[in-house]
């Protein structure tokens, strides 16, 4: 079971194994929102529609993160525990790297009249090259949120609150597209609700920009023209999605030069 965490209106994934499972097995992409300076890192934010789908299909459970005033004194210890844990893991990784090239290192030392045994040289190189500080550490993705955070966790029924962050229409459209085998990401940057891909976005460009509209509400001709032009300009099809008689229906807007 994959663990999702709800905090300040966001649904987050902190465990890298869970993120890999979501992407490889369930076509859930998410968006990296963590950062360590210039390097993106965990956690991963997933869409409300993705969260609801995962929960309804029994793939994931959700817990809410509660931060109380009494927790504030734990932040320093928390940072220190992350740093210590990463130092241990990085040292293990660095040791494996050095062991794979120790013969060449020893040979180079001999040319400089250093005839110590391989183990002593390896330990020296390891100490010199495996130092992790707060200025160069990355988020330790091999740790899980439950084991390191001092915050209190509480199981939350996301179904009771998801409409605060999305709509039934968007959830229905997302679920329908997902059931057809597509990969789906957020589509705000292209003026829609979702971007739809035939494969993983790492390898494929989006083919559809999907905008969800209520069937009983009107849409102006100017909006339709704008959607068609936008889709053509970015080499995608602009699709309007609605619910009609309980089923998701789609209309594709094509721009044709006369």
Characterization of this structure:
This protein has 258 residues and is an alpha+beta fold. It has three domains: 2-67 and 152-162, tRNA intron endonuclease, N-terminal domain (MutS, DNA mismatch repair protein, domain I), CATH 3.40.1170; 73-129, no CATH class; 167-253, Trna Endonuclease, Chain: A, domain 1 (3-Layer(aba) Sandwich), CATH 3.40.1350.10. It contains seven helices and eleven strands. The chain has helices at residues 16-26, 48-56, 75-111, 118-129, 145-148, 168-179, 221-233, and strands spanning 2-7, 10-13, 31-36, 39-46, 60-66, 152-155, 183-186, 194-197, 208-212, 237-244, 247-253. It has a six-stranded mixed sheet. It has a five-stranded mixed sheet with strand order 7-8-9-10-11, sandwiched between helices. Strand 1 (2-7) and strand 2 (10-13) form a beta hairpin. Helix 3 (75-111) crosses helix 4.
